Amino acid sequence: MQTKRTWVEALRGSPFSMASFPSIPSPLPLLSLFLLLSIPPVAPIQPQWPLQRVPVVLPQVTEDRPAPHFQADARLDVTSPCDPECHKKALPPSYWDLRSILSYETLHSNGRLTETAVGIYGYTARPQTTPALPSRRKRQIFGHDGRFSIVGQDFLLNYPFSAAVKLSTGCSGTLVGDRHVLTAAHCVHDGKNYVKGAQKLRVGFLKPKQRDSPNPASATNASNAHPSPPDKMKFQWIRAKRTHVPKGWIKGNGNDIGMDYDYALLELKKAHKRRHMKLGVSPPAKQLPGRRVQFSGYDNDRPGQLVYRFCRAGEETPDLLYQHCDAQPGASGSGIYARMWDRRRRRWERKVIGVFSGHQWVDRDGALQEFNVAVRVTPLKYAQICYWIKGNYVDCREG
């Protein structure tokens, strides 16, 4: 029988202490743990964000499309018969294919739907090869659960955990701008049409639960009648104004190219006033600190809790990253991020380098295997998403 672990309890266990921490006396104050999380890994060479110029993806023509139906359910588990080797063998899309794939639909809060064609500039297709890695093992949450529940308002309301948000369709997302949230496309669109609740999509921000009362006496009575845990939290919701979904997700499917484009960007009706994460181009897994990825989301089996996890990156294709992180439905759409040294600004920075798509069941050599899949932010995807956020390409040339 599994037991629910808090983040603090989990840090005292062997996986975190042996992998990332020196010998830590117990008990350790929460502040010390937070500081330890902020300390970069000690290595002879600092892991650095790669310096690269990104292409330009510009909108050209926008046309109205028929209104969506909003009848489908959000699929929190993505099914595909195509495993990593299948994706690696797929022919890379041509320049004209990419223009079609990166064109996008925009769903407006009033129900209007538009489609925008794009032009691509400064992009040269280069063959991308990925070294063969051992087949990843079958993976579910069993035995030791590697997820950590983040507890305490001082942690939940501080960066980077405060950048994680919840979608009203049951997914998670990450703040990547003053009004923008990055999530998975399947959280708002099933590949054929928009899901239930997508038109009135809301984004939830975890905040302390305040107990208002006219006088101290009634407050005491209310507290005695309905006791509440000291760390009880609730969500403050903000409506989405616009939702952008690439046509690569809408036109494709798991056996084609859809999995590679399972991402969407939400624009909120008002600014959230929290610190957001920067967007970054996904470096090769071998360049990540400790070859690790990490993300925080709202797993369905832990309602009202923010769940953090980290794990070693596994196989990768030019567009997908396979990893061993424990996760449950609800974590879909979480931003995969890494912390590396920015040599230009001479400081450590966290950047979102992918979107957690979810569990993927595939038939591999006649046996069903489970994969945890994340969509990598490639230079072209970076250019597209950055333009959605900034509204210009000048601020989107360096990933």
From TrEMBL:
<protein>
    <recommendedName>
        <fullName>Serine protease 23</fullName>
    </recommendedName>
</protein>
<feature type="region of interest" description="Disordered">
    <location>
        <begin position="207"/>
        <end position="232"/>
    </location>
</feature>
<dbReference type="Pfam" id="PF00089">
    <property type="entry name" value="Trypsin"/>
</dbReference>
<dbReference type="InterPro" id="IPR043504">
    <property type="entry name" value="Peptidase_S1_PA_chymotrypsin"/>
</dbReference>
<dbReference type="GO" id="GO:0006508">
    <property type="term" value="P:proteolysis"/>
</dbReference>
<keyword id="KW-0325">Glycoprotein</keyword>
<dbReference type="InterPro" id="IPR018114">
    <property type="entry name" value="TRYPSIN_HIS"/>
</dbReference>
<feature type="compositionally biased region" description="Low complexity">
    <location>
        <begin position="213"/>
        <end position="226"/>
    </location>
</feature>
<keyword id="KW-0720">Serine protease</keyword>
<feature type="domain" description="Peptidase S1">
    <location>
        <begin position="158"/>
        <end position="305"/>
    </location>
</feature>
<dbReference type="InterPro" id="IPR009003">
    <property type="entry name" value="Peptidase_S1_PA"/>
</dbReference>
<feature type="signal peptide">
    <location>
        <begin position="1"/>
        <end position="44"/>
    </location>
</feature>
<comment type="similarity">
    <text>Belongs to the peptidase S1 family.</text>
</comment>
<dbReference type="InterPro" id="IPR001254">
    <property type="entry name" value="Trypsin_dom"/>
</dbReference>
<dbReference type="InterPro" id="IPR050966">
    <property type="entry name" value="Glutamyl_endopeptidase"/>
</dbReference>
<keyword id="KW-0645">Protease</keyword>
<keyword id="KW-0378">Hydrolase</keyword>
<keyword id="KW-0964">Secreted</keyword>
<dbReference type="GO" id="GO:0008233">
    <property type="term" value="F:peptidase activity"/>
</dbReference>
<keyword id="KW-0732">Signal</keyword>
